[in-house]
Each structure stands twice: as C-alpha cells, then as structure tokens.
Known about the structure:
Blueprint: E1 4-7, H1 11-23, E2 27-33, H2 40-44, E3 47-52, H3 63-73, E4 77-79, H4 89-97, E5 102-103, H5 108-115, H6 117-126, H7 142-152, E6 156-164, E7 167-172, H8 178-193, E8 198-202, E9 207-216, E10 222-234, E11 237-243, H9 250-267, E12 271-280, E13 298-304, H10 311-318, H11 322-330, E14 347-354, E15 356-357, E16 363-364, E17 372-374, E18 381-385, E19 400-408, H12 411-424, E20 426-428, H13 434-440, H14 444-447, H15 455-459, H16 463-472, E21 486-495, E22 498-507, E23 550-553, E24 558-563, E25 570-571, E26 576-582, E27 585-590, E28 595-600, E29 607-608, E30 613-617
Parallel strand pairs: 1-2, 1-4, 2-3, 4-5
Antiparallel strand pairs: 6-7, 6-8, 9-10, 9-12, 10-11, 11-14, 12-13, 14-19, 15-16, 17-20, 18-19, 21-22, 23-30, 24-26, 24-29, 25-28, 26-27, 28-30
Helix pairs in contact: 4-5, 5-6, 7-8, 13-16
Amino acid sequence: MFDKVLVANRGEIAVRVMRACEELGVDTVAVYSEADKHGGHVRHADEAYNVGPARAADSYLDHEAVIEAAEKAGADAIHPGYGFLAENAEFAGKVEAHDEITWVGPAADAMEQLGEKTKARKTMREAEVPIVPGTTDPAESAEEVKAFGEEHGYPVAIKAEGGGGGRGMKIVEGPEEAEDQFESAKREGEAYFDNANVYLERYLENPRHIEVQILADEHGNVRHLGERDCSLQRRHQKVIEEGPSPALTEELREEIGAAARRGADAAGYYNAGTFEFLVEEEDRDAEAGELLGPDANFYFLEVNTRIQVEHTVTEELTGIDIVKWQLRVAAGEELTFEQEEVDLSGHAIEFRINAEHADEEFQPASGGTLDTYDTPDGIGIRVDDALSEGDELVTDYDSMIAKLIVHASDREECIARSKRAFGEYDIEGVVTISPFHRLMLDDETFVNGTHTTKYLDNDLDHARIDEAVDKWGVESTGDEGEESETTRREFTVEVNGKRFDVELEEEGAPAIPTPETSSGGSPPSGAGGSSGGGSSDDGGETPEVPEGGESVAVDMQGTVLSVDVEVGDDVAPGDTVAVLEAMKMENDIDAERGGTVSQVLVEESESVDMGDVLVVLE
C-alpha cells in the first residue's frame, strides 16, 4: 500500500478519498486554488499545496503544478477523484510515466479508448454490447446529419466525442435545424473537451438511464456491483440516483451487468468505472408492479473511467468501499471477492445538494455563508461533504456542495427515511435545491418509480417547484461581519507552496482589516471566490465605460463559448456579442443600445461569474 496519496481534487470527493486513505493508514495531501484556500478538503488533509489562482485551468487542471505538488510532498500516488483531471488520459499518462508516482485509476490507454465516444462504441460493438444505432466515426458536416435523419428518422442526437453529462449534445428535430445544431455541438466540444469531433445517434425520446458499477484488477478479475438508476435528470444532469432500479426485473438486471463486464474485458479495463446504458421504456402497467423484463431494449451509452458522484449508492447496497478498492488495485492487489458474493441489500438513494435556485431554472447561487449547517443523523443516513458552519460558498466551480445518501430495507422505507433526513438537514445562509428533493419525495411519478430522463424537463409542473421553495427554501446571506467579544486572527502562510495555518484568539481586540489582495497572509474577503460583480481573478475591478457607452455583462455564471466581436466593430442594438453556456443551454449575450467595441474582456472557454463584463461599447 502507498505511504502518501495526493488527491487532485476539491470539496466532498477529496474528503471522501482522504477518509479512505486514513482508514488504510495512508497520509494525504491536498491541492487547492486561491479560491479554496480555506476549503474543507484543505482542512482535512495532512498537508496542502497551492497550485494556482481560482481559474481551474490555471490550478486544478494544471498538469505540471499538480505533479510538482506531489513531488514536493513526497507522495507516491495521485487519486484524481471525479471531474477536473479524472478522465484526462494525457495527465494519467504523465503520472504513469513518472518513476515514483502511481496513478490511481485505469490505464491511460483504456481511458483514451473509452473516453472518446466513437472509439468506445466500436469497442462495445466488438464485445457484443448493444449500442444505440448511430455512427462510429466522426461526422464531418451538417449534410451527414440530414442523411442520418432521413435513414433513421428524427430526432437525431449530435454528441461531442469527448463529451458527457449532456455537454456537447444537441438534438435535431428536423433537417432545418441540422446546420445550427451541428455547429453548436462542435463549438461546445471544443470549448469543454478540447475536441470538436462529433458523432450521431438515434435519439431515444423516453428512456431510463441505468448504469453499472465495475471493479476490476490488473490480474484479470472483473466484477460488477449492481446497477444504479439515474433517470431523474434535468438537461441530462443527474439530480437523484438510486439503486437498485425500481423498473428492472432480475433477469434484465443480470443481462445489463453481464454486458458491462464484457465491455470491461474487451477494453482491458481495470480499477473502478461505470458503464452507462439507456433502457427503452415499454407500455407496461408500472403502477401494478409490472417491470421491464429481458425483452426490453437496452443500449450502451458511455463509460465513465473514474469514480462516480453516485458511487455512494453502491457502497451502501453492497458494503464494499469502492474508493479503498481503487487504492488497493492501483497498489497491485487482487480482488478478494467473487461475482457470486456481491449481494445488494435493501435500497439506497443519493440526493445531490446543489447550491442552486430550483425555482429559477436551477441557476447557481452567486454567494452566501453557511450561517447554520446541521446535518441529519441516525440509522441509514450518510452525508458526504467538506463543509463547516461559517464557510463561505465557493462559486468558481461546480455547484454541488454535499450529498445526502439514505439506505433502508426497501424503497418505501428509504423514501420515508429520506423525508426524515431532510426534516433534520438544517442549512441556512446558502440556498440549495433541498426543497426540490422534498417535493420529489411526495411526487407520485417518482414515488411510483415511473419517471424517465424526460420527466423533469417535459412533464413536471414547475409551479410545484416554486411552491416547494416557498415552503422549505432559505435565502442566501453574505458575511455580515458580526461583532464578537473574541477576535480570531487567522493567518495562512505558504513556504515553497506548502500551506501552514496559524490561528490566534484575543479577547476584546478589534478585527484586523482585510487587505484587498493577499498572497498568503490573512484570509481574503470572500474566500469562496467571486460572489457577484466582477471577476475573482482581477480583484473585481469594473472597466471604465465612456459617457453614453455600454458595458455588456452576464446575468449568470457560465462558460464563454464564442466571442463574436472584435475591438473596432460596430454593434447595433440587439446584436449578439458573445455566446455563453450556462445550465446546459447556450445563451446569446446581446447589446442593448449598441455602439463601437472599445474593449473585449473575455476569451473563448473562459469561465465568468454573474455580473462580469464581457464587452465595452462606446
């Protein structure tokens, strides 16, 4: 086993990995950006290293900075968690090539083979795993989309080769949409995955999303740990996951699990991974208990070559610690259990606690402070987080701040226990989607298990979400700076990039003024990064606007997909100056009054916060 593991991630997943390491007697190393200086994962680690500014591309995604931190710390392994570098085959290859550091994950070659969707489809087809009718080579033009639609019918899904989670996927309802959607999918693929290639599939209009957890070692042993049902989604983003699926018979469950094992074998895959499938719904009397049987059509969707957010569901069902097994497999150990020994006990549901406004199309919260944070407890309840009361919300990254996982003897009891858990989960100062989850626990379609991936987007009455927020929601608050008789003075010192914390308390002392910029002294105001106006990277400075001119700003967080103007261009009222991806949708950013472009303040692929100015007109 390893002596010291660097966790190349942040938040709850970093803490989850660190806890597994602790139980194995392994020391842990955190990396953090300027925005995460006071993050929970930093507090939890044995040591921590700063890897750059808030922008992920300059910190958590910086290959050299992460590897250098591991070298400084003397770490002999890197665990990537999920997101960031977890599915980056190039980074995995660099770690594999390092003489003294082990990559905790599948081989870089397998990641590349399965990470690019066209290669993965070819591999699965050769392993006799059903794939959705579509192309196995990149599409070159919108004309190919039209030809595919004529042959297979509409709608057609255009998908980014390196995509996932709904990003880089566009739906074409008819030939007149082919051109725009083709270019849009390519643009998103380039922006998010540095890969503009796209492929085509027949779009399944009302499927269930079923995924199978795989564990495999380097000795040829492959096990599947049952399935998870991730059908409750909005814009292809999972919000609630559960297992086992309330819609499958045992026969269909075994068929899908066997297909996942064949796929893993064919790809030479080892470590943890998830094989995702779409299962076509059929006309059945679900309310009477009729399930999808072995005659139902199921199709391979993709492989996630990493630990999943929802791995916790499987852990609760099987009692198998998947993260520990990731570490053991990476250390060369062999799986010690047979497939027949994998037993699913009861039912488990995971709820993603996202800092979002459920009643505003799930728009991410722009800031807040955890004035109260009291988690539920009792039998069958687990909370994965990296939070403490008083923490400020970090808005520079993903909006998920915690996960609530509930386990019980069956689904009915699991839902009842989940209601109790949310009744005990006290979060004040940061808005979350907990009211939405509480609504789902009384929603007839969800409770009956008849929902599909389209339920939230197409069928749910969104007025019910508004009512749930009115009933159970809280408001976000900023740091009020409440006076206290005891002043706590905290200092963060970095020596050769390594973080050291110093804390002093003094009775009756005035608070220390916080400087506008900091390179490692007292904590910066808003340690969670930008919480509204201005970029967190430029200190929030507002550009000067000439008299009679206009600053074109964004009213939501997102990623700039394209900048459509240059300095000197004339812009008319209503003209689009940039395209922003936010909440799984492209949003045109238009000028109101028009003028001549005097400043362009952003670039393609750059992340922006609510209130950031993109373009200045004069």
